């Protein structure tokens, strides 16, 4: 009988040791160390089913330690749609972490700053870069985690992935005699290439292509002769087509066409300047139909407008 009594005594003691959490919905600590840059802000959907960003993305590296933001109890460890997720209950509020390879188990008590796992790259919202998506759930509603994190109102003046790449100092050409790539669509530039300041949070981020405001379904044309190297669905860029234009005046030039509804070509296919490669859409991280057009020279993105 004594053996049975021991757990009856120790369970209440364990529970009282856990909490109530000292910081139910205040005073979180950063879940990555050193303090990470915020690469994508909280952008709640207008309704339960709408598009949006239900947390913040924090820059990190694959394998980084992921830490609990506050004392609490692990209530979920598992995989959701192939992405490793941890949830911690802090009392009034929950924190969620993904994609993470957990080192804790459901029911574990954790302290603020205690390691709960390591950062994965599969399922990153910042692919191909690694980042931690941190969520905060308060009374069954998503809330902005930055409200609880220290000094989160500071304006960041650098991107966590380094300074924006420089455009080539001299125009490279001639390309088909005019020294220019062809316009992939006819439409206004709605957002240029370059560092972009989030209007509310003051976070700088590189916009790595040129946005053209054109309607859904508009044909998208290859900017130059080349070979289609990839057509695939990316979580951020959506449906994309990448065309390799080979060597242009000593530089390796590729272009890509992003957020498409669908593509009109296959990998390995040769295309001519002006050939339709796909159709404008709003797949991936996109809120409305537009073309996100990218130019890469020797593996680095450049301002496409300097090439058009
Ligand atoms: Zn995210
Ligand atoms: Zn864009």
TrEMBL record:
M23ase beta-sheet core domain segment(s): 52-135, 206-304
The keyword Secreted appears for this protein: no
SUPFAM superfamilies reported for this sequence: Duplicated hybrid motif
Keyword Signal found: yes
Residue ranges of coiled coil: none
One family name in Pfam for this protein: Peptidase_M23
Record GO terms (molecular function): metalloendopeptidase activity
Keywords (A to Z) from UniProt: Signal
Signal peptide residue numbers: 1-24
Domain of life: Bacteria
Name by which UniProt lists this protein: M23 family metallopeptidase
Species: Solicola gregarius
Organismal lineage: Bacteria, Bacillati, Actinomycetota, Actinomycetes, Propionibacteriales
């Amino acid at each position: 009988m004594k053996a049975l009594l021991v757990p009856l005594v120790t369970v209440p003691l364990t529970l009282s040791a856990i909490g109530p959490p000292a910081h139910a919905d205040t005073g979180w600590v950063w879940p990555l160390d050193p303090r990470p840059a915020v690469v994508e802000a909280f952008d709640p959907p207008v309704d339960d089913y709408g598009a949006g960003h239900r947390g913040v993305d924090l820059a990190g590296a694959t394998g980084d330690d992921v830490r609990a933001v506050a004392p609490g109890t692990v209530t979920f460890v598992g995989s959701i749609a192939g992405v490793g997720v941890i949830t911690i209950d802090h009392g009034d509020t929950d924190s969620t972490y993904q994609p993470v390879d957990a080192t804790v188990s459901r029911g574990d008590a954790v302290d603020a700053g205690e390691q709960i796992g390591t950062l994965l790259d599969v399922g990153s919202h910042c692919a191909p870069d690694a980042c931690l998506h941190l969520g905060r759930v308060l009374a069954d509603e998503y809330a902005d985690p930055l409200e609880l994190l220290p000094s989160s109102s500071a304006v960041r003046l650098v991107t966590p992935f380094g300074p924006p790449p420089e455009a080539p100092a001299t125009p490279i050409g001639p390309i088909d005699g005019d020294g220019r790539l062809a316009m992939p669509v006819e439409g206004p530039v709605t957002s240029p290439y370059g560092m972009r300041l989030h209007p509310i949070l003051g976070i700088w981020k590189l916009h790595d292509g040129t946005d053209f405001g054109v309607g859904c379904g508009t044909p998208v044309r290859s900017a130059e002769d080349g070979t289609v190297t990839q057509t695939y669905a990316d979580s951020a860029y959506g449906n994309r087509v990448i065309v390799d234009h080979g060597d242009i005046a000593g530089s390796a030039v590729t272009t890509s066409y992003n957020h498409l509804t669908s593509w009109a070509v296959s990998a390995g296919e040769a295309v001519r300047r002006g050939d339709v490669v796909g159709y404008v859409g709003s797949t991936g991280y996109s809120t409305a139909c537009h073309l996100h057009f990218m130019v890469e020279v020797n593996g680095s993105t450049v301002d496409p407008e300097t090439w058009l």
